[in-house]
Fold this sequence. Notes:
- The chain is of the alpha+beta class.
- 23% of the residues lie in helices and 23% in strands.
- It is built from 14 helices and 29 strands.
- Strands 5-6-8-7-13-17 form a 6-stranded mixed β-sheet, sandwiched between helices. Strands 21, 22, 23, 25 and 27 form a 5-stranded antiparallel β-sheet that branches. A 4-stranded antiparallel β-sheet has the order 12-9-20-19.
- Helix 3 crosses helix 13 and helix 8 runs antiparallel to helix 13.
Amino acid sequence: MKRFTGTIALVLIAGITLSLEAQKPAKPDSSVYTVSGPRHGISFFPRVQHPGVEYTPGDTLSFDRYHTYDVICHWMNKWAGERPELVSLYEVGRSYEGRPVMQMTITGSKNGTDTDKPAAFFEGNRHSGEITSAESVLWLAKHLIEGYGRDSSVTDLLDHFTVYLRPVNNPDGHLLYLNTAQSNRSTVRPDDNDSDGLLDEDPPEDIDGDGIILTLRWPDRKNGTMIPDPDDPSGRIMKRVPRGEGIYATSAEGIDNDVDGRINEDGIGGLDLHRNYPENWRPEQELTGRGFTQRGAGEYPLSEPETRAVFAFLMTHPNIYVVNSMDTTVPMHLRPPSTSPSEERMYPEDLKWYRYFDALASSITGYERAGDVYNDYGGGEPLFGHGPDFGYWYYGAIWYGDELWNGGRPKDYDGDGDKDQLDMLAWDEEANGGEGFIEWKPVSHPIHDSVEAGGFNPKFFSQNPPPSHLEKWASSQALFNKELISHLPRLEWEDYSVKRVKKHRGDSVDYDLTIRFRNAGKLPTALSQAHLVKIVRPDEVRIKIENTDKDVPRYRIIDPAPPAPRRGNMMMMPDDESRRPEYISNTVGYTPGGAVAEAHFIIRVYGGAELKGTATVVTTRAGILPEKEFLVR
């Protein structure tokens, strides 16, 4: 073993950096990629271009390759320019490094504006390296935009509903991942992952200059924990054994920059945008030593601009009912709760819908797993500040945080009851031309002798599907999200009726005007949780009656009583009386899918007058019904 002391560590790090810049990765770019922020480690890395990634937009958009943020933005701009009646593109926030976070609204021009309709929100690439999620959002955008006016089902969806699409919520991490050998969890904000008081001081090094961070192995019969797996005659797969019984030691590709005995334990960033939501947030450290903490939570809830950009948009768009904020890998359809069993806290009627969508999703994607974060994913271990919990308990929506891609483990090839690396190797050879495993090869290491680098491609096999398999995963997930859209509530008018209920002395008569509408969609107009947290208002029927002769009263609304003027309120402005609505409203609660709701108005008519008026229905998450005329006589 080569030995060095702490006094030469910085010299060694500098030498490694220089040697990295001198080596040529696959399809090298002469420039370096620089990451913003104050850190104790390096902030610049050799820029690489990975095979299977499109860095410059072509004439067509295909999903046999991945796309950089620049390419994704090119297509969003193109669609917005070519289909302005259908697509709008806008900035919703800025990332830690100041990049614009771009989002599309897709909806037909019929039936009102985007906020007049029930809506869905789909987000990708919150986690830096989980780029399959961005491709799924992009695939759905292409499918909807190209299908509108050609595919009757797509046209019907977009005429009645709004779809908000944010392919990349974390452009900083996305670009770091696709332009360097580096990989990190979420934001690139410097962080102290190993609690040593230093920020980002020990990132990986691409020692062999091939553009990815592989696994290193070297002989170590004293402390080794790995042996060639005896079930793999090729000798490629390693098997873990007790310390001292192995013949190899292993680590991720790199060196121990801070000389603490660990390798690559504090790379770029480390905070987790998916632990930064306000619902059930917990700090990374608490002072008693007896409370719950959450790694990656950030300094406080919504401390990160990328998470705030999601929060702010959703809170100002309460018409959003269904959400999927996607990651990789498991695969799994993942939903709340994240800190307790489903039955313990969820309304039974809401949980019934979630379990319905669990089954529907699996029937579309083929994922073997679907369920809640706490039990079905975490085995009873809580996750705090998690998106699905915010989505349900705080926002009252159907919210999934689906995990795409199976890590190359579609089945148990050898029948041993475990989908392990042997099964990954079998699938790679059977379905991927053997391109997912990088053969072990000698590399020069500054510390260890006889070092080899190899293993599964960490970016385009372990964490994301190989490019040739990308579209299957992107499209199947997108088609489930399309089904979520199709389940949104949909309002339609039913007939109204007028019934004479009482005649008074003189010439006045009371009539019962009944306005009816139907929720022709599948979901109710709101979940029970949405009502509890008051993110929605009850469904409301509003009527206006023409009054052609204001000097002579022709009618009076008996029930519901018009709102009384506010008195004794020191905050009341002088013109408050003039702000009273011109309509009379009646609320009807929340309307289940397929049900008819009706609102009653008792109107006293004087002098045999004939009244003309209009009615409309206003809801938070089921949209607005346009005016319908009625006649009382």
